[in-house]
Description:
Elements: H1 8-39, H2 42-72, H3 75-99, H4 104-132, H5 139-168, H6 177-188, H7 202-208, H8 211-217, H9 219-228, H10 230-248, H11 254-277, H12 284-300, H13 307-335, H14 341-396, H15 398-407
Helix pairs in contact: 1-2, 1-4, 1-5, 1-6, 2-4, 2-14, 3-4, 3-6, 4-14, 5-11, 5-13, 8-14, 9-14, 10-13, 10-14, 11-13, 12-13, 12-14
Amino acid sequence: MVIKIFNSENKNLLIFNIIKVLSLSSLGPFQIYSLLYLSSSETGRVELGSIMIFSILLGILVGPKLGTFIDTHERKLLLNFNLFLWIFISITGFIVWNSYAHLSGVVIPALFLIIDFTEGLFFSTLRSIQQTIIGHKKYGMSNSISEISGQIPAVIGATLAIPVLSLLGPRFSLVIQAPLITFSIILLRYLKENFSPVKSNKESFKENVSSLKYIKENFSIIFFFYLLNFTFIVTTIGNFLKPIFIVNVLHGNASGISLSEIAYSTLGMSTGAMLSFLRTKFNLKHSYIFMLIFAAGCFLIPSSTSFAMYIGFQTTHGVGNPGNRISRNTVIMNMVPKEYSGRFNTGVQILSDITRLLLLLIFTISIEFLGPTLLLTITGVIMLVAIILSLALYRFNHNVSNFFKNLN
């Protein structure tokens, strides 16, 4: 009865964001435990970096096919498959871990890898669905609300992690996933899409809807948005470096990692809430403002000498990355037709994944020699380089500059 008070678009937004919150929150406790487990030893730190590298490599390999698949199939079905897969993983993972507890050193990394990879597929499908459930006038508001719903799971997951891990144990962190995801599957039945997949025969599929062909034809614009995506790329590197920094430099534990997630996510939610109430036509300048805030945090965070300082500086990332994502995604949704959004986002994602792969490989090799403090500082330099390169591309590439003239 409550949902009936909303119009069709608001009802879609409500269902979409509840599904997102429930599904991602369910993964939190196990992910927190895995990060602590892998960050606590020299071998584990290398293993954590290797898992992230392999997960990204898998994403690069399936990315072109996934982008085309998203644009040529019902997106709800893809999301449904992902949710059922998570239920299977959680139940099977619990049974295996419970039966072979002495093999935790193998089971935990394997489960962490599978969940990390499938989470990427989940987000790729979500981005494309979001464009099809509302009209273009609500894209800005939708992205702001989506940012809130993207951060809430980190708070819920991190909050759940403390009692679940201390009272029930890490294996039961998998058990809580199934009921939450099951409810998401039920809600998905009521989500209405305004999208008709492109039907293609084998010849036209290869010739006209290939992700790689589309990327080649629109490379300069895709490359520009890839540069704007460096807040996300560096955040991924931070997901590797920050737990190591907390555990080994600040001498924190699972609660410290959870509080770090909560601080970041709280600011992300606040940013999304604030921007959802502003009647702003998001454009390039908003992205750059938030990118500069984020870059400042890359230099401040490694200078922390206490956990309180770290949490304070972490707020720059809690504002910068979400704010840039809202601005960037709104521009993309306004300018890229929904029937091409899967391939366009795939193009940005492939370039981002290749970069994340290379950086994680370098940082994983370097972590024992250079330490997390210096490597976190280097991410600030990387951010500044990305900002300068994107400005140069905007200034000297006609395709990019004309793209934004059309927007304005």
